[in-house]
Amino acid sequence: MKILVICRSSRSIVCSAKKAGHTIYALDHFGDVDLMKCADKAYSFGNIPETEIYELARSFGDIDAVVLGPGFEKLKFKNILNNMPSVTEDVNDKLKIAKKFRSMDIPHPETETLDKASGLGFPLMIKPRSGSGGMGNAIARNEDELALFSARADAGELIAQEFVEGIPCSASLIGTGDDAVVVSLNEQLIGVPWLTRLPFAYCGNITPFVTGFSEEMIRYSTQIALEFGLVGTNGADFIQTKKGIVAIEVNPRFQGSIDTVELSTGINIFEAHAESFEGRLPRPKKSRCFAAKTILYADREVVIDRRLSDRLIKCMNTGRAADVPQTGCTVQPDEPVTTFLGTGGTREIALGKAGKYAHSIKVMTET
User: Fold this and answer.
1) How far is Cα 319 from Cα 315, in angstroms, rounded to an integer?
2) Which residue among 69, 238, 302, 333 sits deepest, i.e. has the most Cβ atoms within 10 Å of its Cβ?
3) Is the peptide bond before 123 cis (omega within 30 degrees of 0)?
4) Given this model, what pLDDT does residue 68 score?
């Protein structure tokens, strides 16, 4: 098939689809080296009007299907390989999903709008009502800090959530609308200090997540998929506490875990995604190794000079790095620099490799 992917960061989707044998076109914000290498044709774009996105899309000629990433789900194309817009809108609304979880008897932190938040107790997690990545998340520890959030111009777009301590984790699932299968459980890396200075930014993940609560995660994820009629690849985010699993939110789209899921299980996620729209689900596979992904964020303005670019491309060519920026581009503070990948027979070995590669590049950005 000829597939068009429209996403802020589309590399993982594009490369998965290319490995599955499709002709791939991409509209992407970053235009990373490996994206351009995987795609048959790609354009990078900044903050352009919606009409210009359609113009760019038409430049690819006839296409068989379109995959829309976060923030682009409302674009209108024929043959979209996404959940229905109404489903995506409902699932993306963190206030609505909180109430829905409660009605489904799925453990979930108490969630309210900011004007009703005081009764939840402190500390509180303040987050956008919709969106992903954790970039806009923050903590309110008392009434004074809550008042500061309430005074913001975007206060109506924020929610307050009971703060839950534990291990962030997720389930990657494929659905047909009527059925679903969980293909992996993943540990999430959130706000890791040696990767980012943002306390709740998504910094990668490790697959598989070995937990005594795997049955609960699989059961809740399947229940969510069937309740909303999710189609294609979707993710359910959880926190593992000392008492069990608490559901946090649902990502009705391709997730950042695609790299480690594919490395660990051998399943091609794009192919499984495409086949699900024809009613076919993949057979779950036992993990053949642990796979780790770390995302290094810039803590200052970083220019990708030739020296840094050559090192990153060398890492990319040996399978150790992905999302490699073009030579000469500037990465702003708190934006991702590059993704690093590692595999091994244990969690520690896989994370150690991905962490070592990230550290070596971090040192280069500081000199």
Assistant:
1) 6
2) 238
3) yes
4) 96
Long-range contacts of 141-147 (CB under 8 A, 24+ apart): 143/118, 146/114, 146/117, 146/118, 146/122
- Spacing of C-alpha 171 from chain mean position: 12
Give the residues across from 42 on adjacent strands. Answer: 26
What does each C-alpha distance from 296 to 17, 241, 264, 344, 360 come to in angstroms? 25, 27, 21, 20, 11
- For residue 41, CA distances in Å to 17, 96, 199, 273 come to 13, 39, 36, 21
- State which amino acid sits at residue 52: E
Count of all residues that appear for the chain in the document: 367
* Cβ partners under 8 Å of residue 37, min gap 6: none
Kindly report, residue by residue over 189-238, the tens digit of the pLDDT.
999 999 999 999 999 999 999 999 999 999 999 999 999 999 999 999 99
> Is the CB of residue 138 less than 8 Å from the CB of residue 200?
yes
Task: Look at residue 172 in the predicted model and tell me its pLDDT.
Answer: 98
Positions in the chain whose pLDDT score sits under 50: none
List, in sequence order, every beta strand (DSSP E) within 132-179: 138-140, 158-162, 167-176
